[in-house]
Amino acid sequence: MKLGERSQRMATVEQHHQQTRILVQAAAAVCEDKKGEDTRILELDPIDAGLSDFFLVTSASNDRQAIAIADEIEHRLKMEFGVMPNSVEGRRHGEWILLDYVDFVVHVFLTERRAFYDIERLRKSARPLTPAEFDAELKVALAKKTVAARKKATVKAKPAATKAKKAVVKAAPKAKKALKAVAVKAKVVKPVAKKAAVKKIAAKSVPVKKAAAKKATKKTAKTKKK
Q1: pTM of the model
Q2: 86-122 per-position pLDDT tens digit
Q3: Which end of the chain has fewer CB within 10 Å, C or N?
């Protein structure tokens, strides 16, 4: 596997992991809204995890509350993210309802059943987090991702700006040459235009001079006759 392909694959895995965390956060929020007790998120050890990354565990005081929590999790993830559980178990009795979303599994227990099975003890290698702690970690991760994306966009923008600058520098001599040519042309045209204007004025004044001379001649002739 090439280095570029490996980096791309790692980025895809990280993105998928972030999406899973967002889904777990949404499911945990439902547990809080529906008054689930002692809600915990277990971040499973990759070696011990199998196919799942997280366990979401919460307790209900009775089977009706357990079913309501499980139903609302399923409904909200479907409506907001278009995600459905791969399988659902235990909904009929409501003592231990399991929603398997492959990358994470939701366990809704009756309080006494949770104590009996003690799922947290069975996953000793897992890292337990409260919904608040999990939410804080997710915000930090998303903030880092945003900063990285902005930095990447800036790096991409720099070559474009440099290219534009080079194009301006390259075009500058041509523009300077064009301006110089215009200036030279103006310098040549101006005297020619001036000369033409003088010639035009002179042409207009000739008939006037001739008329004045003719009039003077006539006046002299009349004087002589007298």
Answers
A1: 0.62
A2: 999 999 999 999 999 999 999 999 999 999 999 988 8
A3: C
The amino acid at 87: S
Give domain limits for the chain: 3-129
Answer positive or negative: Cα dihedral of 74, 95, 127, 6.
negative
| Total residues found in the chain within this entry | 226
CATH number 3.90.79.10 given to 3-129? no
Distance CA 193, CA 185 (A): 12
pLDDT of residue 34: 96
Distance CA 75, CA 114 (A): 24
End-to-end CA distance of the chain: 127
Helices 63-81 and 3-33, packing angle to 10 deg: 140
Contact 52, 44 (CB under 8 A): yes
What beta strand segments (E) does the chain contain? Answer: 37-43, 54-60, 87-89, 96-100, 104-110, 127-129
**Beta carbons of 80 and 19 less than 8 angstroms apart:** no
Nearest to 34 by CA among 77, 79, 66, 82: 66
Q: Encode pLDDT of 166-200 as tens digits.
A: 775 676 677 667 767 756 665 655 555 556 655 66
